[in-house]
Amino acid sequence: MGRFRELLARARGLFGKVRSDADLVDEMTTHLDALAEENVRRGMSAEQARRAARREFGGVEQTKQLYREQRGLPFVETLVSDVQFAFRLLARKPGVTGLMILTLALGIGANTAIFSVVHAVLMQPLPYPHPERLVIVWSVYGKEGRAPASGPELTFLQQRSRLVEEFGGIWAQGGALTGEREPEQVKVGWVTWNFLSMLSAKPQVGRFFVPHEQGAGAPAAILLSDALWHRRFGADPGLIGSTIRLNGAPRTVVGVLPPDFRIVFPEGSSVPPDMDAFIPFPSDLATDAQDQGYIRVVGRMKTGVTVVQAQAELEEIAGGLRAEYPTYAEQSLGLRVVPLHGDVVRKLRPALLALFAGVGFILLIACANAANLQLSLANERRREITLRTAIGAARGRVIRQLLTESVVLSCVSGIAALLVGWWALKLLVSLRPAEMERLGSIELDWTALGFTFVVSLVVGVLFGLAPAIGATRIDLVESLKEGGRAIAATKQRSRSILVAAEVALGFVLLVGAGLMVQTLTALLRSDPGFASKNVLTFRLSLASVKYQTREDAVNFFRVLQNNLYTVPGVESAGLTSHLPFDDSLPNWYSYYWPEGAPKQDQNTVMADYRSILPGHLQSLGAVFLAGRDFDEHDAVEDRAVVIVDDTVAQGAWPDGDAVGRKLNIENGNFKRDAMRESMEVIGVVRHVQYHSLTDRVRGQIYLLYPHAVRQHMAFTVKSGVDPQILGPAIRQEVAKLDKDLPVYSVLPMDAYVAKARRATRFTATLAAAMAGIALLLACTGIYGVSSYSVLRRTKEMGVRAALGAQRSEIFGLVVREGMVPVVSGLLAGLLLSFAITPLISGLLFGVQATDPRTLAATCVFLGGVGFLACFLPARRAVRVDPLVALRYE
């Protein structure tokens, strides 16, 4: 309690200091006068009495200082004084101060922007209850390690797992809302009854699904998203319990999800984040076909259970599935469990960490630049520091003053960095790839502000500590005699080391940027296997009750395809179940094998299946390598023929021609289970990149639509004009056949290709921007050191010129001294690149991580830039007038 009172008393002492000092002076004067009068009475003269009184009383200033230390908080008072002095000092040199603030603001701002992205993407938990316990379960079939589960698998997991509280599943589909308003295509999630309650605490209005609403014969219920509720129904709370029509059938609205609810699933899961509505699975999942995997399964582990423990249990469950179901045994089914959040960011993590390391390098370069400028300022203040030390200032006190100046400068830079970070974050958000959009908004929040504050403090200490310690290591005799050549030389060596570090770090960033730009260039030149120019795509879903039979669907699409040829500008039109780089609907893939393959070679290799009508491969610009395309006779006669790509052809018949051979495949389905059938190969096309511009994920098998009828299909329309102008005419043709059928996702094929390039463009653009900033800072550092060296050695240059030194000799001397740290930095950067760039090899395409051309070009370019930075100071040095230089000091 006594210490607390003392602290309060000291805190009160911070206020009213002027009055307290005046009272102290009055009291001390009274004591001195009393002692002097006593000495006078003892026989001393007035002057002797006053001198003796002061000697007996002690040092007046020391007494004042002791009183002040007991009265207030000395550390706070000293800090305030140091901060005020720092602002006055920085204001004296606005040019240097502005340069340091700009340098540090670029470094800190870039880190703030990238940290905001890293925090939102990699560090923020998913917006679900207990997100750390959520996992996603993938089925494993040979090389297929990320396959969806079948209904029996999900049921088996729900029944057998002891370590996972519950499992839920979702299958993303499309649907059409009809009624009084215009028909609207919506994204519909078919889910288990408990799926939404696993991911949301409670609905906004209404309730979640209940168990009896899932399965055959269950009541037709539906849950709406907040966006759909507002967009189509005006946020009417009375909608709960009423009926709406989805795909022509009535469904009862039982609830509306919260406004912030979204589905966050991994890229490649075909589950978009902006789902519009959810309905329970209408079938008993346990009785589904065992080889029909379509459900994305999530689970919530029990408290305290680890992923490793859950994986061990799922391996036992997979063994039970193989033992109970021969189909799973033939396919060697396995189960893999991974954290949901980790799976969502698995593709983003390497790029973001590489970018975070890159902006860290920029910050180090900025610190080196600021430290160089601080060294220069400290050298100019050498006489001030010498005098302060000579009259008794402690070394620690001087270091604290210099560090305070650095921290004040970095904090001011941190404020400016928030503007830089805000602008940079807007750029990042505009460039972000689709995988990042799944995770919601990215913004400068309080965490980012706290990060900026901490970084500013650390940076202030980092770039200010070495100059502060170096500035206080002085020889008083030498400094007072102005013979500080050794000191100046030491400072020059320190600045050269910092420049070499800047060049080395900048070298690594330039190499990384060069590799990423080459990767982007390779992607732009890469052949996706089709021609996207002037191709318009749009989607239709025949999920309505109007299209109950296979014949209804086939007739509709064939008539519409023929009608599209009457639209002016249309050169060809085709129908397909899947578009390249479109992840809005589930992929379709299954096993295939050549006819007559032995049992052990069946159920080993999978291919992507595509249902098409004649004209699709032509409109997409696919290249035939052998055989022919489908024709109208194939479609009308429903022939059992297929077209394969070169991957499937080489895998099935590596030593022979595929055309004319038979292939055992899955023929698709329309409201019935898929069946296997042997079909004849009539053509081979070049592989089309459906999933990635860089990887061949699987081969492709093209089936005729009548043999593989599916509800959700896309048209590809090739035109000789801008495809965007065809949209209204296409909608009219669809409305002629079915006015209630929505036309959606009307996009040029180029948009899908651009989407596939966005992730690489994002990384390459940021890498190039960081390299540009690093290059600018490195040039500033090289130029600053060379200029300062010439300025400090003006007298020396004049003496050399007066003694007969040629201008070329002086020029060469300055350039050589300036290039020494540059060359040293290039060598260090080359070694760093060999160690660091292999870490980003997973982000590269078409170029090696240690590409010799990139390394050589970076050496030449950065060396040339370094020479130019040394050239201007060298030219200034040769123009020094000897007479002026000899009078310089």
Summarize the structure.
With 889 residues, the protein is α+β, with helices and mostly antiparallel strands. It has 29 helices and 23 strands.
Account of the protein in words:
It is a single chain. With 889 residues, this protein is of the alpha+beta class. It has four domains: 2-72, no CATH class; 143-331, no CATH class; 348-525 and 756-886, no CATH class; 545-739, no CATH class. The strands form three sheets. Strands 14, 15, 16, 17, 18, 19, 20 and 21 form an eight-stranded mixed β-sheet that branches. Strands 3-4-9-6-8-7 form a six-stranded mixed β-barrel. Strands 13-22-12-23 form a four-stranded antiparallel β-sheet. Helix 13 (348-380) packs antiparallel against helix 19 and helix 19 runs antiparallel to helix 25. The longest helix has 44 residues, at 749-792. The radius of gyration is 38 Å and the shape is elongated.
Percent of sequence in beta strands: 15-25%
Q: Uncertain regions: pLDDT < 50 for 5+ in a row?
A: 483-490
Largest sheet: number of strands, sense, barrel closure:
8 strands, mixed
First-to-last CA distance? 62 Å
Number of domains: 4
Query: What number is the mean pLDDT?
Result: 83
The tally of beta strands, per DSSP, is: 23
**Whole-number radius of gyration?**
38 Å
Structural class of the helices, strands and pairings? Answer: alpha+beta
Helix content: 40-55%
How does the overall form come out from the CA principal axes?
elongated
Task: Please report the number of helical segments.
Answer: 29
